[in-house]
Design brief:
The protein is 43% helix and 14% strand. The chain is an alpha+beta fold. Strand 4 and strand 5 form a beta hairpin.
Length: 529
């Protein structure tokens, strides 16, 4: 991993080198700057070929500025740094950068929004929409699934006998997994216990094979999405956005964390009378999933392919299990997004920027640019994402044989299409994500009490959520919010005042008397001058 100091020095050098392209007084309309987190030599080479071909075709120079992902959001939000014309961002950031206060993002023109609505998956459209607008061209799409090792099932069936009660149960569950039928939590628990192996020749006994292991890698975004997939599949919800307040600590959420506590940290398998603790050794997928029967994983966990070698083909991809309070399987999806900045709009570069983004997202014939894209009908953006081992979100790109002929990628595409639900983005999404991820780690790694830990997380989330009517996001609901709300009264979708913040408090896509009522209810509670 690169040194943070070196990374920041490189960022400053890049920004200094491209500073002339940022300045309104000197910037040429033929130079469009593009901030991305694609920094590897292969990624820079790829886009260097693409932008050179585009300049030869149109005369427009695309200057790409690659920075490390961990630094990307800070650079976007730092007003001491001149903004680029285009950015490849996490769609989660849209609410923070598309409100009236910062105005980082430009609203895409109607033809771009129509293009996305016609040619991208519905779940990706949802993940790219905020206050009624699709904010750019969706890029990579991520989904979650229950990944299982069929060989461990088959070995256990052979060991116990196919006609024994245990063998019959394992055979039934494996058949459901292979048929992409969601398991019930009871089935997940029963086979997880059967597939957990102990070495009793050592003291204390140790686990040599795990039936189910939580995915905890120290990234709160992934931990929150794992929890949210199970929460939604158990009939629960994350937040009440009109209050706003936490809902994830209801019965449904507590059932999720109790399940993870029982299967992930405390097992009653070796001695039913005694709780045996086994925090998983890092990294707990030390050789892929050769000794783990089931995990809920995101699509991007492709490096287990290298870890497992030929055993990778033992894996299968199935829907998220349905909890006792749920009725359907749900897989959280999220995506990234190519956007154009307000800076480009102000300098007259937005049209050229959108044209470039449209060009890289259109289907292209095979070998269009020195074998980019590699499959006939795949877009340049789609080809790049496939080469990165992630899923493109454009419908036609998902027909690329490199995806359809790969059981892992095809499986996650099908899960996203059938069971996908886009993550719900909002102001302070990342702070909420952090608290839920921390809660998940405490329960699964440290064995904290599931009920009290999730309640504590909900209390922290409630303390950081903005109040209804806090339109300028300064904390209190006060006269300044009232001025902003009245200014936008009766504004309709598409008007300048409608999308620039939280005036549409109840999210019904119009600023009207219902929003005034919500503000009036809360007005004066805190911070009234």
């Amino acid at each position: 991993m690169k040194s943070k100091i070196i990374t920041r020095v490189l960022i400053l050098m890049l920004l200094f080198a491209f500073a002339s392209a940022y300045l309104p007084s000197t910037a040429s309309p033929e130079i469009i700057t593009w901030l991305t987190f694609w920094t590897s030599p292969e990624e820079v080479w790829y886009w260097g070929n693409v932008t050179a071909a585009y300049e030869a075709l149109t005369g427009v120079e695309i200057t790409m500025i690659p920075v490390e992902f961990d630094d990307l959001k800070g650079i976007i939000g730092d007003w001491r740094v001149p903004q680029p014309d285009m950015i490849y961002i996490d769609a989660m950031w849209v609410p923070e950068f598309a409100n009236w206060k910062v105005e980082v993002l430009a609203i895409p023109p109607d033809d771009v929004q129509a293009d996305v609505k016609a040619n991208w998956t519905e779940v990706t459209q949802d993940g790219s929409t905020w206050k009624g607008f699709v904010w750019g061209y969706p890029g990579e799409l991520m989904s979650w699934a229950l990944v299982y090792n069929r060989k461990l099932f088959e070995d256990e069936i052979a060991l116990r006998g196919a006609t024994t009660p245990e063998g019959i149960l394992l055979t039934k569950v494996l058949a459901k997994l292979e048929a992409d039928v969601p398991l019930a939590w009871g089935e997940l628990t029963d086979v997880a216990i059967l597939l957990t192996k102990w070495d009793t020749t050592v003291s204390p006994p140790r686990i040599t094979q795990r039936g189910f292991v939580p995915f905890v890698e120290g990234m709160t975004k992934e931990e929150m999405h794992q929890f949210l997939s199970m929460l939604w599949s158990n009939g629960g919800e994350l937040l009440d956005f009109l209050a706003p307040e936490a809902k994830f600590n209801g019965t449904e959420g507590k059932e999720v964390m109790q399940l993870y506590y029982d299967l992930g940290y405390v097992h009653k398998v070796y001695d039913p009378q005694e709780l045996v603790r086994w925090p998983p050794p890092p990294p707990y997928w030390w050789d892929g999933l050769n000794h783990i029967a089931m995990m809920i994983l995101p699509q991007w966990m492709t490096y287990i392919r290298q870890d497992m070698g030929p055993n990778f083909t033992h894996l299968g991809v199935a829907p998220i299990p349905i909890g006792p309070s749920g009725t359907e399987s749900v897989s959280v999806t999220y995506n990234y997004l190519n956007v154009v900045t307000q800076k480009a709009e102000d300098e007259g570069k937005a049209e050229a920027a959108w044209e470039f983004l449209k060009w890289i997202n259109e289907p292209k014939p095979a070998g269009y640019i020195d074998d980019i894209p590699k499959h006939d009908g795949t877009s340049i953006m789609g080809d790049f994402l496939i080469s990165e081992c992630v899923l493109p979100s454009r419908i036609s790109d998902q027909a690329d044989p490199r995806l359809l002929e790969d059981f892992w990628k095809r499986g996650f595409i099908e899960i996203g299409e059938t069971y996908g639900r886009s993550d719900e983005y909002f102001i302070k999404s990342e702070q909420v994500e952090y608290e839920i991820g921390l809660m998940f780690e405490k329960v699964t790694l440290a064995g904290a009490n599931p009920t009290t830990t999730i309640d504590d997380a909900a209390a922290k989330v409630n303390a950081i959520l903005p109040m209804p009517g806090d339109i300028n996001l300064d904390g209190p609901v006060d006269i300044y919010d009232a001025v902003l709300l009245v200014h936008g009264i009766d504004a309709t979708p598409g008007s300048p005042n409608w999308n620039r913040g939280r005036s549409d408090i109840n999210n019904d896509h119009v600023v009207d008397i219902l929003d005034v009522t919500i503000l009036s209810t809360n007005y004066g509670k805190t911070g009234d001058p």
